[in-house]
Design brief:
alpha/beta; Rossmann fold; four-stranded antiparallel β-sheet; 9 helices
Length: about 400
């Protein structure tokens, strides 16, 4: 309009036509007047964003609601459009035309996101555009702070392993875990809420962390999970990648064990990950990144050095070499041991996968080979069912044996 207005104005003055000059003046005047109508309009806009839920599992929907309002009690805003900034894994940016906003008017728009990959994402900032009634001038601004969305790994339900104390209800058996009388109890790590009067200072000094006495309590099984997150051990990244499969399998197993009342120790090749609740495990695994560690021996050593006996050891592995499998096979002796091998990990060839499986199976491990988390439930029930039954039978037989008297 400015260009045509200037041309019309100059042409009208040259040829002496007042009508053409008037048209030129009109065309030159309209854009500045339109700019005055949107002056300060963006600053009059109030906005908010609500993500429900703010914590969602991979493959499930989260609803994002954006509210835009005119905070001015007198001045309207002619035409408003909004678009939200999304990370690439969450899809294309949603764009909406809100339209006219009168004084104190409020409009809501909402959209769904379905993240396929776990992680911590930031939604925003909001892109707000204001246009004058004639569409001559448009002002755009990025406003507001991003909103977080935590995407936890997808999990599958697994068969129950039974109560951790071997029974249910208030009549479940109790045992004393004292090792040598009340003066020398077997301690455990301090947990939030423990009575400070139960602190065992001798063990605290020995282990370098706060320890408390174990009192008469329900029997609790001790379990351990080892997750291989090495970058070189897994294939390409993505929802169908072996790393995402391994994380989902480990999350499913950890949630199942914690839900069954087990005391869980969770390890990666970088060391131990503290886990207290199923939600804590999922939140921690949501932001777990692949590591550049070359070997798995560090994680295996951490698993082997853990204090106390372990009744169930589960290793979720990418591509490992037979030497690492041999080192792993020597851990968790005396308990139930299960290894989950990701078939689509970065194995050099299927022969290496077969040799690793044979090394673990020969050492008494229950080996599961899968390519998707959905394959886990039946394989888990088969691998742990018979092994758990055998372990229970051995425990019952040992408990019924009277020391100092051989079988008759």
């Amino acid at each position: 309009m400015l260009a045509f207005g200037l041309v019309a104005l100059v042409a009208g003055l040259i040829v002496g036509q007042r009508e053409i000059v008037g048209v030129g003046v009109l065309l030159v005047t309209v854009p500045p007047l339109s700019a005055l109508t949107v002056l300060g309009a963006v600053s009059r806009l109030a906005h908010s964003r609500t993500v429900t839920p703010a914590r969602v599992r991979a493959g499930h929907d989260a609803r994002v609601q954006v509210r835009v309002g005119n905070s001015s009690p007198t001045w309207p805003v002619a035409s408003v459009s909004v678009s939200d900034t999304l990370p690439v894994p969450l899809g294309a940016e949603p764009r909406y035309t809100v339209g006219y906003l009168g004084p104190r008017a409020v409009r809501d728009v909402s959209y769904l996101v379905r993240p396929a990959v776990r992680g911590s994402y930031l939604l925003g900032p909001l892109q707000v555009g204001v246009t004058d009634p004639l569409g001559c001038v448009r002002i755009s601004r990025r406003v507001g702070a991003p909103s977080p969305l935590l995407v936890t790994p997808a999990t599958v339900p697994l068969g129950a392993l039974g109560a951790a104390d071997g029974a249910k209800g208030d009549d479940s058996p109790r045992r004393s875990v004292s090792g040598a009388g009340d003066q020398d109890p077997v301690p455990r790590e301090y947990r939030y809420g423990d009575d400070l009067r139960r602190v065992h200072w001798r063990s605290t000094a020995k282990h370098g962390e706060l320890m408390v006495r174990r009192e008469e309590q329900h029997w609790r099984e001790n379990s351990a999970v080892l997750l291989d997150t090495r970058r070189r051990a897994h294939g390409p990244a993505g929802p169908a990648g072996s790393l995402e499969t391994a994380v989902s399998v480990a999350a499913s197993v950890a949630v199942n064990l914690l839900g069954s009342g087990h005391d869980l120790r969770f390890h990666t090749e970088r060391g131990r990950v503290r886990t207290a609740t199923p939600a804590g495990v999922l939140d921690g695994l949501a932001v777990t990144e692949p590591s550049d560690t070359t070997g798995l021996l560090g994680g295996i050593g951490t698993l082997a050095d853990s204090r106390g006996s372990t009744s169930l050891v589960v290793a979720v592995l990418g591509a490992v070499v037979p030497e690492e499998a041999a080192a792993l096979s020597r851990t968790g002796v005396g308990g139930v041991r299960a290894a989950v091998l990701c078939a689509h990990a970065a194995w050099p060839d299927q022969g290496v996968l077969g040799r690793v499986r044979d090394v673990l199976a020969t050492a008494g491990w229950r080996v599961i080979v899968l390519s998707s988390t959905t394959e886990l439930p039946p394989l888990w029930s088969h691998a742990t069912g018979s092994a758990t039954a055998a372990s229970t039978a051995r425990t019952a037989h040992a408990g019924s044996h009277t020391p100092g008297r051989g079988p008759r």
